[in-house]
Amino acid sequence: MHDTCSNDVNGIRSELEKGDVVLFLGSGFSASLHYHTFFGLTEILAKNLSPDAKDLEGNTLQEVVESLEKGLDRSKIVNFIRQLYPAPKDFGTDNPYFILKTLLDNLKGRILIFTTNIDMENNYVFKDQAEIISTENQLIEMKELPTITIFELHGDIGNENVKQSLVLTHEDAGKSIA
């Protein structure tokens, strides 16, 4: 497994054992599974979907997507991203989410996980024990926090509604749960 991920997960063990926990998992958490960070995704989108890729170098993901949306339908952009983040597969015990789940299994407190990851690993690994929130409506409708709640700050790549699936632009961010 990727050393950084292993150190990060093991480094939070003592905090987890104390009780209620809030975790933030950035896109680097999935990097050991060969998923792209947002920086990598930004470069790939610019190179593959923009005729002016050079002009987009150094731009943020939001800026690149906003530029792409001037000439492309959003569904084309979202479907391209979906190809980069396929359905989860069983990575076994090398999966950092599996390791995290193992650490969380015996905790007695409430666990809140905030993530910017857009891969489906959260949904796959925690499907039977966590409430996964990715839209404002889900957040509003929630009556109380379950033991494990995962807040997908950049949306849910599996959401069929391409307008609601991912937080990709500044306008999307204004409507997100973040």
What sequence of helices (H) and strands (E) makes up the elements?
HHEHHHHEHEHEHH
Number of domains: 2
What radius of gyration results from the CA coordinates?
17 Å
Shape: globular
* Sheet with most strands: strand arrangement: 1-2-4-3
Distance between the termini: 30 Å
- Give the fraction of residues assigned to helices: 40-55%
Largest sheet: 4 strands, parallel
Unreliable spans:
none
Question: What is the oligomer described by this structure?
Answer: single chain
Structural class: alpha/beta
Percent strand equals 5-15%
Strands, count: 4
Query: Could you tell me the mean pLDDT?
Result: 81
Count of alpha and pi helical runs: 10
Characterise this structure.
The structure is a single chain. The chain is of the alpha/beta class. It contains ten helices and four strands; from the N terminus they run ααβααααβαβαβαα. It has helices at 3-11, 13-16, 38-49, 61-68, 74-84, 96-104, 121-125, 136-141, 162-165, 170-175, and strands at 21-25, 111-115, 131-133, 148-152. It has a four-stranded parallel sheet. Strand 3 (131-133), helix 8 and strand 4 (148-152) form a beta-alpha-beta unit. The protein is globular, with a radius of gyration of 17 Å. It starts with a helix and ends with a helix. The model has no long low-confidence stretch (mean pLDDT 81).
